[in-house]
């Protein structure tokens, strides 16, 4: 009998030790929709795993640090098709145990998921939607934003153009809704930093394909006429998120002027050519793993997943509520190869970050520019500041 009791006690002790050695499982959801594959240039057509690859690489990085605290991070991804219900997809991830869900959705879908997710205690991290309203009148207390706003992109570009003393802008705007939203941000940036829009024109999208045998000749005839007879300007700024015309503007304008905005000098959060502050190390790892270059969406998804990992490791807990409290606290920051730690704006949960300016091959500059000052952080010169916000969390 004694031997049996001893064996049972040993089994209980062994089982307890085994359980104690089991790492804490932290599950992260990635909810995404298929990216549009309509691009002016074939080399810009996104990969099927655009964004997802960045999240996967960051999960590996989370595990590299999390293992020291006996934490294990798992990424669960869910693709939302054109006719699929994004709320059902979010619920499926929540049912699998994901309390943090990184989202690459348009604004409408994101709001639906956010409202449904509040009831389930889900925290969403937006990595793709640029819409200002998501951080302003439609802000949600359970949505953190890693993707920049259009105003952050426009301000980063405007600071550099003003620094160059290219203050006279011609603004060429596409005819789609998102083009108009980016144009609004550019107008605000011009006013904010002392530039002047001397003329505005609209490029009407009449459809049709330019990738034909006669396409190059047609573009060469058409594009100069778009800017013919314009008021004297230093730079042509294009608002063309729909990728209809801006890519055709460089070297085809009527007057010899630089192009910026949606083509030429482009504001972004990341580019495959970026090589400062240790970024080459991340670029090389990504390219080796996925056999392609790292995009801005990849980097935004990488940053979002790393924020969760930082909260788990530095916050000292894998409990979702405590992790979220740490992310929202003044102590939180995340390193993302941008030359400084990135922090969260407490008034709208937008991640502060520099804006990179690229010409298609090289880093031209990084904003905020020297001389643009702020009483709290120079990064708050990019995008709407605290006194301007309309956010009241729901």
Describe it.
- With 394 residues, the protein is of the alpha/beta class.
- Helix content is 36%, strand content 18%.
- It has 10 helices and 12 strands.
- The protein has helices at residues 2-21, 52-66, 86-95, 107-120, 150-163, 177-193, 215-226, 279-290, 296-314, 320-327, and strands at 24-33, 71-80, 98-104, 123-126, 143-145, 168-174, 196-203, 235-239, 259-261, 266-268, 355-358, 363-367.
- The strands form 3 sheets. A 5-stranded parallel β-sheet has the order 2-1-3-4-5, with helices on both faces. Strands 7-6-8-9 form a 4-stranded parallel β-sheet, covered by helices on one side. The protein has a 3-stranded antiparallel β-sheet with strand order 10-11-12.
- Strand 1, helix 2 and strand 2 form a beta-alpha-beta unit.
- The longest helix has 20 residues, at 2-21.
- Residues 1-19 have low confidence and may be disordered.
Task: Give a quick set of tags describing it.
alpha/beta; single chain; about 400 residues; disordered N terminus; Rossmann fold; 2 domains; five-stranded parallel sheet; four-stranded parallel sheet; 10 helices; 12 strands
């Amino acid at each position: 009998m004694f031997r049996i009791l001893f064996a049972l006690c040993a089994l209980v002790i062994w089982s307890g030790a085994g359980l104690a050695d089991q790492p804490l499982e932290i599950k992260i959801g990635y909810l995404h929709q298929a990216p549009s594959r309509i691009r002016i240039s074939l080399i810009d057509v996104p990969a099927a795993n655009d964004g997802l690859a960045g999240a996967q690489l960051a999960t590996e990085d989370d595990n590299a640090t999390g293992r020291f605290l006996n934490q294990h991070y798992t990424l669960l991804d869910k693709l939302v098709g054109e006719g699929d219900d994004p709320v059902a997809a979010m619920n499926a991830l929540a049912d699998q145990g994901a309390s943090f869900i990184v989202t690459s959705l348009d604004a409408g879908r994101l709001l639906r998921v956010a409202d449904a997710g509040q009831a389930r205690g889900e925290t969403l991290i937006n990595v793709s939607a640029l819409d200002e309203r998501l951080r302003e009148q439609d802000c949600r207390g359970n949505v953190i934003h890693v993707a920049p706003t259009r105003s952050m992109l426009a301000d980063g570009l405007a600071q550099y153009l003003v620094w160059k003393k290219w203050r006279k802008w011609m603004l060429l705007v596409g005819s789609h809704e998102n083009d108009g939203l980016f144009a609004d941000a550019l107008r605000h940036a011009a006013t904010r930093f002392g530039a002047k829009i001397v003329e505005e024109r609209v490029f009407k999208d009449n459809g049709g394909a330019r990738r034909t045998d006669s396409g190059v000749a047609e573009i060469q005839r058409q594009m100069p006429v778009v800017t013919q007879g314009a008021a004297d300007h230093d730079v042509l700024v294009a608002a063309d998120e729909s990728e209809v015309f801006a890519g055709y503007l460089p070297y085809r304008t009527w007057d010899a002027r630089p192009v910026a905005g949606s083509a030429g000098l482009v504001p972004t959060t990341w580019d495959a050519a970026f090589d400062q502050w240790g970024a080459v190390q991340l670029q090389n790892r990504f390219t080796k793993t996925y056999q392609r270059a790292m995009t801005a969406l990849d980097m935004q998804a990488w940053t979002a997943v790393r924020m969760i990992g930082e909260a788990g490791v530095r916050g000292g807990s894998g409990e979702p509520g405590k992790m979220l409290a740490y992310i929202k606290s003044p102590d939180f920051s995340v390193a993302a190869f941008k030359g400084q730690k990135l922090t969260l704006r407490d008034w709208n949960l937008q991640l502060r970050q520099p804006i990179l300016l690229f010409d298609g091959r090289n880093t031209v500059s990084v904003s905020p520019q020297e001389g643009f000052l702020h009483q709290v952080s120079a990064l708050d010169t990019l995008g709407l500041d605290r006194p301007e916000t309309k956010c009241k969390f729901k």
